[in-house]
Amino acid sequence: MLKLLPKFSIAIVPPGWAFCVSAITTAALTTAVIATSQAQNSTVSYDFTINVTKGSLVGKSFNGSFSYDNSTLKGIGIEELGVTQGLKTCFNYLGRNYSESDDRDYPTFPKLVFENGKIKQLDFWVQPEKRVVWWNLPGWEVKYSQRQASAPAVQDCQKR
Prior knowledge:
Elements: H1 18-40, E1 43-52, E2 61-69, E3 78-82, E4 88-93, E5 96-99, E6 111-115, E7 118-123, E8 140-146
Antiparallel strand pairs: 1-2, 1-8, 2-4, 3-6, 4-5, 6-7
């Protein structure tokens, strides 16, 4: 009769090396836990300013911010993040603050569009007219910068 026994590996560690093996194992496990927790949830926040150089609003500037969880992004091709993926927005337009729930087509919009991992546009529309993608439209110069990790995700977007 064949008897199956579990196989075990035993490492013989010379005296004085046990501490070294333990330290290396602990360091490897700690690094794996830190890397895993950082990859799971990373909120990224940006501030933006729009300077209007053409049209009826020439000379006006508007500002806002947006934040999103980048853990689902692959960085390849066209990708979109919306409200259901955690996109938060705040946009001061003509003296009034608008959040993501003010988008004309909420909750389908707003959307943040990426191309090969880089922000291509924020599709956020608060007017009753037909939706226009204004992000870097000729005459609408958009400048944006990433916030420091310690800054709040999105500015307080109370209606004014």
